[in-house]
Amino acid sequence: MRGYITEPKAFRNAAFQHMVHAMTALPNARMTVDEYLAWAEDRPGRYELCEGAVTAMSPEGAGHAERKAAVYAALVAAIRARGIPCHALPDGMTVRVDDATAYEPDAVVYCGAKLPPAAVEVTNPVIVVEVLSPSTRRIDLSVKLADYFPVSGLAHYLIVYPERPRIIHHARATQTRYSPASSTRAASNSIHPGSNSGWRMSTRLD
User: Fold this and answer.
1) Cα-Cα-Cα-Cα dihedral of 77, 78, 84, 88, to 10°?
2) Alpha-carbon distance 125 to 85, whole Å?
3) What contacts 15, CB < 8 A, 6 or more positions away?
4) N or C end of the chain: which has fewer CB within 10 A?
5) Percent of the chain with pLDDT over 90
6) How confident is the model at residue 202, as a pLDDT?
7) Structural domain total, the chain
8) Do the domain assignments include residue 45?
9) Cα–Cα distance for residue pair 61/109, rounded to 1 Å
């Protein structure tokens, strides 16, 4: 009886592992963002596309998840307090940088008409937020800062340190019509790196 039970269990486990591998195996061929979105549809896990290459995102700890939830709640509260026609979304939405790069920020704000329920991409982001983690810290602080800059209409890039009360706020020198990140006006240690960058950086210490 024991052997009879063990064999179906082993078969089931092997079949499950094969199914998961088939669903989550990363493609070798480079993709456009449109191809990537079609590939990622209904797949488990979280992914990003950088220069045509698909990257799986690492699992996150409870502290990181709590910080993301706090960021999302703060953005929703700021939008409601100001009564502006903008919407905050938690992680899961795609922001397209160019034809071969698309990121999934930890929170995003867009303004105007509300996206349909089936939408997976925010085409008009105003704010993107990344909460730092050991696996993404270097990319969030450098690569994504450069990549988010060309996105049309993007006015604010917030980088949140989960282990200490620090937010780095990058903002365009020319603001858009809506600015739900007004709470960051209390920022200190402002730095103006020059007109060529297009961003204003400040560090907020609570």
Assistant:
1) -70
2) 13
3) none
4) N
5) 48
6) 54
7) 1
8) no
9) 24
Q: Which CATH number covers residue 98?
A: 3.90.1570.10
C-alpha torsion 126→132→138→141, nearest 10:
30
- Structure tokens, 143: 């690569």
- Whether 30 is in a domain gets the answer no
pLDDT tens digits, one per residue of 34-50: 999 999 988 888 899 99
Is 54 inside any structural domain? no
Other Cβ atoms within 10 Å of 132 Cβ, number: 21
What does the pLDDT average to over 198-206?
48
Q: Report the pLDDT averaged over residues 159-176.
A: 80
Residue pLDDT, tens place only, 96-150: 999 999 999 999 999 999 999 999 999 999 999 999 988 888 899 999 999 998 8
Chain centroid to Cα 44, Å, comes to: 16
Average pLDDT over residues 175-204: 40
Render the burial of 51-73: b for 16+ CB within 10 Å, e for the rest.
ebbbeeeeebeeebeebbeebbe
Task: Using alpha carbons, select from 82, 162, 90, 157 the residue that is nearest to residue 122.
Answer: 90
Which pLDDT does position 10 carry in this prediction?
A: 54
Residues present in the chain in total: 206
